Amino acid sequence: MRLVLAAILASLGLAAPAQAAAPELFVRLQPWDTHEAVSDWIPLASAPTLNYVGGYEIGYRLQASGFQQVALTVASVPDGQPTQPYNASPFCVGRNDAAGTIVAAGPELQFEGNGTYAVKVSVGGGDCVAAGESSTGSFGVDAHVAPVLVGDPLSYRATSLPGDPFVGVRAAAPPGGYADIRCALDGTVSPDGSVTGSRVVPKPGGFVHPETPEFVFPRPGVWTCVARGTADALDGNFDSTFSATPWSGPLTIEVRSDFRYQVGAIARKRSKRPQLTFKAEWPDVAKGGRATMTLLRVAGCKGKRYKLRKAGTFRARFGAKSLRLTVPRPKAGFYLGRFSFAGTHFLLPAVDPAPARLAVLRGKLEYVPAHVFPGCPRG
Length: 379
What we know:
Blueprint: H1 2-11, E1 25-29, E2 42-43, E3 49-50, E4 56-61, E5 66-76, E6 91-97, E7 102-104, E8 115-123, E9 133-141, E10 148-150, E11 168-170, E12 178-185, E13 188-189, E14 195-196, E15 200-201, E16 211-213, E17 221-234, E18 240-244, E19 251-255, E20 261-263, E21 275-280, H2 283-286, E22 290-302, E23 305-317, E24 323-326, E25 333-341, E26 350-351, E27 356-361, E28 364-367
Parallel strand pairs: 3-9
Antiparallel strand pairs: 1-2, 1-4, 4-7, 5-6, 5-8, 8-9, 10-11, 11-16, 12-15, 12-17, 13-14, 17-18, 17-19, 20-21, 21-24, 22-23, 22-25, 25-26, 25-27, 27-28
């Protein structure tokens, strides 16, 4: 009977299975979706730790030339429950190659978080499920992503920087995966390492965000940022999902802004001391900031330009909601008002490049539109 079996195997080009010893196990970095190895085989005997989240192929060394059946079992993963839809446990496959060759024991494993992955490989039995000699091995994954501040972010920047460089918070992707950032205004770190606050950017959802440019921050203030690494994966129904590393430690940053304001109506226009009102874009961080209005009377033209005479400089500070600037009512005529802001911790100093157009007409101080304000000859 043995001679007949040997003859059948020989006719198929297969050698009779030899009595196998416990197999020598290996791992290499190989994405589960592209199946293109990105490292050499690494012995599992050394219990290696890998900085990679793209996927892992388990291999074993053939002890003899010829056909072998092998069973791969994913024994444990960091998240406690293996989600390896391509690796039914055990996964059975036949191999036929030269002795000493390292061959795959099954499909690639996908990333399931930082920690220890344990596998069992059995070879040489009469059938796959009841395979004979077995070895167990493990490897660790330790991938970390950290947010990094680039430049001095402004939620609003009046003038673009030369070359339009990136300014904000970014994170380098972990090998084989992607980076994901979250930032929260006046943030609090949750038990799972994520951040919450009055505003969170980018908004959590189905996408990862490797960077947060300055214009994504909706307002100035103290922001707390964390980052994590992610990797594409499949759930038990073969639907797309992702796995992630732990969130990083928090990075606290200050986001500032160029100053912007709105002009309010003039109160007590006919009185001897009219009152001009200004409202900052962010009153809470403008509070206490000093502003100055310089009034310049238009005394005629010199060529294409106005001849201007200083009529006074007036100062006040922003309160909780706005700034009210009281000025002695100037004499009748047209005026340009140059508004400047000295800045606060979160708002940069600024001078409005467009002077306000004012006039005292019929005993009343008021803003006037451009078509009413006198111009100088253009040439």
